[in-house]
Amino acid sequence: MKTDDTKIADAGERKSASAADADKFLTFFLDRERYGVTIMAVSEIIGLLNITAVPETARFVRGVINLRGKVFPVIDLRERLMLPRVPDTAETCIVVTEVAQTAIGVIVDRVSDVADIPRELIEPPPVMEGATDGLLRGIAKLPDGNVLLLDPEKALLGEPFTVFGKRDE
Amino acid sequence: MFKNAGDFAQAVGKLTPAALDMLTVFAIDDALVENLEMNKNTALGGVLEKIREVLPEVATGNIKDPAPAVAMLYEAAAIFEKAADRDLSDAEASTLLAQCALILGQTPASPSAVAVASAGMTEQPPAKTGATGIPTHALDDPELYAEFIFESGSHLDAIENKILALEQSPDDIDIVNDVFRTFHTIKGTSGFLAVSDITRLAHDAENLLDAIRGRKMVFTPEIGDVLLMVVDQFKILLANLEGSLARRPDFVPVEVPIDDSIVRINRLMGKVSLMAGPERAAAERPATDEAARRSSAAAREAIKVDLGKLDSLINLAGELVITRSQVEQAPCMIGIADRDFKSNVERMGKIVADIQDLAMRMRMVPIRPLFQKMMRLVRDLAKRNGKDIELVLSGEDTELDKTVIEELGDPLVHLIRNACDHGIEPSAERTAAGKSPTGRIDLRASHMAGDIVIEISDDGRGLDREKILAKALKSGLIADERGVTDNEIYQMIFRPGFSTAGRVTDISGRGVGMDVVKRNIERLRGRVEIETRPGRGSSFYVKLPLTLAIIEGMLIQVGGDRYVLPTVAVRQSFMPKKDEIAGILGREQVVAYRNEELPIVALGRLFESAGYCTNAHEAMLIVVEGANRRFALLVDKILGRQQIVIKSLGRALRNLASVSGSAVLGDGTVGLILDVDGIRRLALKKEFGNEN
């Protein structure tokens, strides 16, 4: 079963996998790994805009941006996944996502492509150390390498953005 | 253009919505009218005249949804075709006329009513009623019914207000006529839609009103009660209809004893001849048409716009303003000598500002409907409490942001309830205290210094300072009364679970509500102030920002960051002299300001900005006030003042204390709007680890 699927992928015929057993993922690079997030959660990809820092926020929150009149937070995914911080480059960009009706910009090192990933190629995620555990939905074993598939809700919204505590109600 | 009605019918029959502009041509074809007049077909002539009113509206695009108009024209065409041989029957003519009136009136019900009327005319079997009393075909065309529910809701509000007005002036036949017509309209539409319970009830209410306007009966409080009961039952019937439309599996329609109302109406009617029935009502129809035309003329000036679209417009207008300033401030602009070009740019700037202003104002609606709802509330509460209470409204035309008005409903109901239940004394007690036996509640809306103030004042017994204080001490809200101001004591009533009511009624008491009032109002960025005099009454002042969407802000700079400080929180700004600043506790500094020593909060240090100015006497101090506490904010520079459009930071960032929202600045980046009291709390937390 598994070999069949690999063959299909090998033959570069990923398209032939029907929509029912393959999902589309936007893939991007962070540090040395390739990550993926379902394109259902992605609205667009933009270059780095001027980000306004916001006080009382967690380290992984870079700040907020204005995109065509809409203001929303931008998070540094490296920081969120406890990866080492690096200076922004020309390829650094913001993946604008919408998770649980909340717009969030996600800074990634470099966007790769949109991949159809057959479900058979997705394996359950390994148990990770500490805070990053549970952020992955699975690992796709593609012929050209592994893609770590993020659970958008947990990875992007799982941790509170603010640190001061709640406003008085 | 047309030799006869048949030609006209044919032409109309060929219309497609895309070719609607052709309709104008038809509208001015006098030959057709002459033709009809020669044939002495007056009903047809009347309809044509009406259609000629509709056509230009359709052609010029004044009617948003031309489909019902086109459907009506098809219908008319079919009838005109037949009319070549015979006279148009009165029934057909009046249905067409009703359709025309609906289209012209642009009432939201129009598409539905027309569609149904057309269906009726092609001799569809009468609608069947399902087990829930809801017509079974309602589920085939839910939109139609949704429109009916929406429309009837506002009709019922109107009826309710008029009945309350009638209770004040029972002899005013104009009001009776108005109520009659409104019931008639509801009856008409519910008849179309086969919502039989509503039709029956409306029919009887109509009869009752007809007897009054025919001076066969006089309006009595009892009639008022019955009519209000009918209104309440309508509301439940509509809710039932809505519930079954939504097809919620758990929906159980509420039993409505409409027969009780019908019996009560008939009993009232029994006192007069029962002959004044629907026949008379039918005879009065021309008057109803006249009213429909008048109201449609008024309605034509307003259209319904989806709020989402409006907000997008506001967003775009905001973007336009930003782009304008980018264009105006572009370095190459300085080098341009062309005066025409420069004046064009300037004019464009003005237009852009006007567009933004207009877009913002489109969200503003008068507070009147909300105020009028309170009339009914006070009436019912007074009756139930056995008190005599008069509610006096003023400033109903004051406009507020639509969202503010929606959110204001609940707090207002609580405050009015409180005034009726606890504020106003029973008549005997009032008389004993030398007051008028009728209690008075004033509900006022007005503008005051950039805020909207809603005042709820009663002339009742006032808040009992000692009782509140005792309760606060007992429940440990305060340790002792020393240093506690009266205002602070009165504000205690807004604490959750705080109530001094000796008696608990089904309406208010137990302190449930006042904390909700405060929370709801604070969510609107407003506040409540209390004034009270023992034995004389209390006033609650709800102070709200004009709109949720725009504020006057002071743009400040700290290090490389810019922030917006709401101007309302700013008392004064100055460059302090060295000797005005004193250091205490090492890092903490205070500044002398009008006989006060105000703590200084260095925004740069608080926010850990890069490269901010650290010396108070080299920078700017801004005296700010929030939640009745003053302090001085140390910033690098004040960049200016401007109107800013508030944008939310989104759900993920809603818990920030020191930042209440954001604004898009002239260069397109985001500036954070500061919350003064939140900054104070954040500073305390950072310096001393506590929050108060």
Keywords:
heterodimer, A: 169 residues, mainly beta, six-stranded mixed β-sheet, five-stranded mixed β-sheet, 3 helices, disordered C terminus, B: 692 residues, 17% strand, flat
Characterize the structure shown.
The complex is a heterodimer of chains A (169) and B (692). Chain A is mainly β and 169 residues long. Chain A has three helices and eleven strands, in the order H-E-E-E-E-E-H-E-E-E-E-E-E-H. The relative contact order of chain A is 0.22. In chain B, 51% of the residues lie in helices and 17% in strands. Chain B contains 25 helices and 18 strands. In chain B, the strands form four sheets. Chain B has a six-stranded mixed sheet. Chain B is α+β, with helices and mostly antiparallel strands and 692 residues long. In chain B, strand 4 (439-448) and strand 5 form a beta hairpin. Residues 1-29, 106-133, 272-300 and 502-512 of chain B have low confidence and may be disordered.
Rough outline of chain B:
flat
The total count of strands of chain B amounts to 18
Determine the fraction of residues in helical runs of chain A and give it as a percent range. Answer: 10-25%
Molecular shape of chain A = globular
- Percent of sequence in beta strands of chain B: 15-25%
Q: Are there runs of chain B of 5+ residues with pLDDT below 50, and where?
A: 1-29, 106-133, 272-300, 502-512
Number of helices of chain A: 3
Rg of chain A, Cα atoms, Å: 17 Å
Largest sheet of chain B: 6 strands, mixed
- Return the string of H and E elements of chain A: HEEEEEHEEEEEEH
- Approximately how much helix is present in the residues of chain B? 40-55%
What kind of oligomer do you see? Answer: heterodimer
Q: Which regions of chain A are unreliable across 5 or more consecutive residues at pLDDT < 50?
A: 1-19, 165-169
Q: Summarize the main sheet of chain A.
A: 6 strands, mixed
Spatial sequence of strands, sheet with the most strands of chain A? 8-1-2-11-10-9
Number of strand elements of chain A: 11
SS summary, helix count of chain B: 25
Percentage of β-strand residues of chain A? 35-45%
Strand order of the largest sheet of chain B: 10-14-15-13-12-11
What is the largest interface, and how many residues per chain? A-B, 32 and 32 residues
